[in-house]
User: Fold this.
Amino acid sequence: MKDVLKRLLEAESRAEVLIKEADAERDRLVQEARAEARTMEERFVASLPALRASFLFSECGRTRWQSLQAESNWLGDAGMLFLLAFQDL
Assistant:
């Protein structure tokens, strides 16, 4: 009986070690994923000005800008404020 209990206690100890190792590995993976996501988000935010510029200088962007300018003629001051806000995007 003592032999069985001893083996059970040893198995429990090994299991606890494995659980601690798995928890540490999980925490490491979560931290890596968070860091990678943060890096990707920073790259995306840094690329926004170039994306905006490429849109504004594209044919579609120019057409939309001209359309907004034409609309602002009959929208008055509110339309011009909208255009100024849109221009800074």
